[in-house]
Amino acid sequence: MSLSLYDTTVAVFIRQLKNLSAVLKKAEKWCDDNQKPHSELLEARLAPDMYPLTSQIRLAVRWARNGALLNKDYHFMATDGKPELKHTFAELQGLIQDALGFLQSVKAEDIEGAEKKPVSVWSSGEEGKGHNVKLNSGHTLLTQAIFPNFWFHDAAAYNICRMKGVPLGKMDFLMGAGPFDD
């Protein structure tokens, strides 16, 4: 059995965003059960110079969407440019669900071969704005930017929740949304 680009990108992002959603549900329940204001967790950071939980979720979602490699002339999907925007648990769940809907609409044939094509990346999501980086392949973009950034922000979100006392373990990170698919 061989692995396709879809198997190693879109399918992985779908599964992990479902796990992230489950972690977020546990985090909200923990706040409610312990009479903690949601802001105590949503605004928490691992370090003073790091983004809060809300932004970690938003960035994990953004990198997962970028990981579909659907853009002909690749540009990062634009954000509103304000990573510090406050979001509620419901709004963050909405971001995750929107990304899941997008990723579930991607078919393997839509991205077949994208890992071999050269890409031009505009950091702002808009051509001519931000930094432009030209890469020889989508593979380089995936392995050196998208994967590391997605896993960094996904793990940071989990770690913020864990640090604040949400009862999470490794299985929540790996299987929060259910058992492994086979």
Automatic annotation (TrEMBL):
InterPro entries: DinB/YfiT-like (IPR034660), DUF1993 (IPR018531). It comes from the Eukaryota. SUPFAM superfamilies: DinB/YfiT-like putative metalloenzymes (SSF109854). Pfam families: DUF1993 (PF09351). This is Helix-turn-helix-domain containing protein type. It comes from Diplodia seriata.
